[in-house]
Design brief:
572 residues; alpha+beta; SH3 type barrels; four-stranded antiparallel β-sheet; four-stranded mixed β-sheet; 22 helices; binds adenosine-5'-triphosphate
Length: 572
């Protein structure tokens, strides 16, 4: 860090309660202390020189690469992003990392073929920062070095990851299009068409309105696009991570269930009200129209299930397991008909998972199948991350938070407080400097993440971690006259696994040799797998930022001085 030199007249930043940082000018400077007059209010502030970071030379539009800032510190970064955002310059580089600030409004001048053309083959930095520039750099590097590239898109919920990923996919489809891959997949549609068409399908079954985002993806996504040696798309695969399945049966107002329920219900309402309008159109045709990529046989099996879900009588009373809103209430089933209810739920869960898997299978070219087999051979031993290691140890290490959660989940009557107690008493947690117990609570715990401490409420952890099907349900579905449903619970052996997994819990303790399936353990495995893949590729980074909580294209919400919000309460 360069020495901070303050003299009379030096332009600086001063921390302020409401605005986070305001501009000021030094009017008296001593070795240990400076006196600053703030801009606008004219307030006089006395502080240490290091608490008055220097302003960068005047520039009304900010800089498009933050490594060009003479002074790189929090107020400089915030000011730069804020200034650019005011001009709808939502993209900014920090070296080769792209920062993308959600505009919360359509900016058509930024996208489309004419813009793709502009960024084609052009080095990063030559034109204004753009997501196309990152996609282009990855594409060109792949061709030049003949090496796999990855683009990591990160950010909090509602920051714009999904939209950014779609823009990348469009760009890559544009660059690597015109293949004859339709023949290859046997679907009559080219791979790039299928890649793009997969988005509405995945969003229908995997996205829902939450308090943070009206179109929140409730699963992680890894999209793999393969190119041949001519740079033409030859195949694609989508791997999904941890779909939030509990949402299907339990949603809290004002959140909603998965979009598909509302889409199909909308169709049914129109059909009921205007039968003449729809004429001979059926739900099946509707599903085919909006999701052309679902194979005919799968669609024919899924459609009646969706129909059945929509028509299951409304649940009464059991709000805890009842989705909010009318449409998905059908998914909760009738309270009086418990078996039917469970059938509905598990049907839907099966549909969800299978649809996501179907999208994947539709794309998979033979090379990838082999890669999948090879994947099974990978040794999932611990992968070392240099950064953040102690938090990772705490969460996914031996006898860490996830291990202990699995232990507790093996007992049928376990409650959140039992889990909390286990954490408080376990050496691996209580001895970690990243772990603490809130003084007054017996159900919460705090993890000190790199961005600050987060308080977790354990109440829902147990239910959300269980990932097995009750044996009766597995048996019921395995015997279904719907071949599609039956196959899910017989061919894959899921029924046997589910029965085994559920058995110990039902006896009130863990049995020897039983394969226990939990969301936490899957998470660990999938993450390890992802890291192996990413390590083999050249990474590119895009950091998405949600500028404010209102979801409006007005301002960047500046952080309040004092750092992170230590009272944030998270549930899993
Ligand atoms: N580049 C963009 N242009 C216009 N609107 C955008 C853009 N990026 C994001 N948005 C808007 O912000 C909303 C939220 O973005 P998005 O769904 O991509 O967030 P996310 O990071 O994927 O969130 P989650 O983690 O909850 O899935 C979008 O539905 C869209 O309205």
């Amino acid at each position: 860090m360069e020495a901070i030199v303050h003299t009379v007249g030096t332009k600086v930043w001063i921390k302020e309660e409401k605005e986070a940082w305001i501009k000021g000018e030094v009017y008296k400077a001593e070795e240990e202390v400076v006196l600053v007059r703030t801009e606008g209010t004219g307030a006089e502030v006395k502080c240490k020189p290091e608490d008055a970071p220097l302003q960068n030379p005047h520039n009304n539009r900010g800089v498009d690469d933050m490594t060009r800032l003479s002074y790189l510190h929090e107020p400089a970064v915030l000011w730069n992003l804020n200034t650019r955002y005011a001009y709808d310059d939502i993209y900014t580089y920090t070296g080769t990392i792209l920062i993308a600030i959600n505009p919360f409004t359509s900016l058509p001048h930024l996208y489309g073929e004419h813009m793709m053309d502009q960024y084609r083959g052009v080095d990063i930095g030559e034109y204004a920062p753009h997501v196309y520039a990152i996609a282009d750099a990855a594409y060109r590097q792949m061709r030049k070095e003949m090496k796999g590239q990855s683009i990591l898109v990160s950010g909090e919920s509602g920051a714009g990851k999904t939209e950014t990923s779609k823009l990348i996919m469009k760009y890559l489809a544009y660059m690597g299009g015109y293949s004859d891959a339709g023949e290859q997949t046997g679907s009559g549609r080219s791979v790039e068409e299928q890649v793009l068409e997969s988005n509405p399908l995945l969003e229908a079954f995997g996205n829902a309105k939450t308090t943070r985002n009206n179109n929140s993806s409730r699963f992680g996504k890894y999209v793999e696009i393969n190119f041949n040696d001519k740079g033409v798309i030859s195949g694609a695969a989508i791997r999904t991570y941890l779909l939030e399945r509990s949402r299907v049966v339990a949603v809290n107002n004002p959140e909603r269930n998965y979009h598909i329920f509302y889409q199909v219900r909308g169709f049914k309402q129109v059909e009921a009200k205007y039968p003449a309008l729809l004429f001979k159109q059926q739900l099946d045709a509707f599903v085919q129209k909006i999701f052309p990529m679902i194979r005919d046989n799968v669609r024919r099996e899924i459609t009646p299930m969706l129909n059945h879900c929509i028509h299951t009588p409304k649940a009464s009373g059991r709000t805890a397991t009842r989705p909010a809103g009318n449409a998905p209430a059908a998914a909760a089933g009738a309270a009086g008909a418990q078996a039917a209810t469970h059938k509905s739920w598990t049907d839907i869960l099966a549909v969800f998972d299978t649809l996501l898997a179907t999208v994947k299978l539709n794309f998979v070219p033979k090379v990838l199948v082999q890669a999948d087999y090879e994947r099974e051979e990978i040794d999932w031993s611990y992968i070392e991350f240099v950064d953040n290691q102690d938090v990772l140890d705490l969460i996914e290490g031996k006898l860490g938070v996830l291990d202990l959660l699995d232990e507790v989940c093996r007992f049928v009557d376990a409650k959140g407080k039992d889990f909390a107690e286990k954490l408080y008493n376990s050496g691996s947690c209580k001895d970690s400097r990243r772990f603490s117990k809130p003084k007054t609570s017996m159900t919460q715990f705090i993890v000190d993440h790199y961005a600050g401490p987060v308080k977790y409420e354990t109440a829902n952890f147990i239910d959300k971690n269980k990932d097995f099907v009750v044996p009766e349900h597995a048996a019921l579905l395995g015997g279904s006259d719907q071949a599609f449903v039956a196959a899910l619970f017989t061919e894959s052996g899921a029924a046997a696994e589910a029965a085994a997994a559920a058995a110990p819990g039902r006896r009130g303790g863990a049995a020897k040799g039983v394969k226990f399936s939990s969301v936490g353990s899957q998470f660990k495995k999938q993450l390890a797998e992802l890291m192996v893949q990413l390590h083999a590729m050249e990474p590119h980074y895009i950091r998405c930022i949600k500028p404010n909580e209102s979801g409006k294209n007005d301002s960047i919400l500046l952080p309040v001085p004092g750092g992170t919000d230590s009272t944030l309460l998270s549930t899993w």
